[in-house]
Amino acid sequence: MDLKEQAKQDYLAGMKIKDIAQKIGKSASTIRSWKSRYKWDDVSDKVAKAATKSVATKRNNNELTKKYGWEPKYDKHGSFKLFGVKIVVAFTNSERGVGAVRGMTAYGAYINEASLANRAV
């Protein structure tokens, strides 16, 4: 695997650009230029809908960070990427919202324990 492909895989896995640059021995600006030139953000158009952005969800993410060393990079809307799949907040703090999210994507992912506990889902 060449350096560009290795950097791309690390980026899609959620690694920070400066950490990737340090790992493969290139500058962060080189990694950023590869990211834009080869459209790494457009690799996956798969979108998973997160049912809520709550303290419980953040606690779950903290557990993932502690156990696996994975830390999500949130954008200004609270979305993040996990292995190339964009996790998007679909609604907040509403049980009715689960029904609204349902069926909006072919991948139909609901990422939180509250939606899994709801029999209607």
TrEMBL record:
InterPro entries: ATPase_terminase-su_N, Homeodomain-like_sf. The lineage of its organism: Bacteria, Bacillati, Bacillota, Bacilli, Lactobacillales. Gene3D superfamilies: Homeodomain-like. SUPFAM superfamilies: Homeodomain-like. Residues 2-43 form the Terminase ATPase subunit N-terminal domain. This is Helix-turn-helix domain-containing protein. Pfam families: Terminase_5.
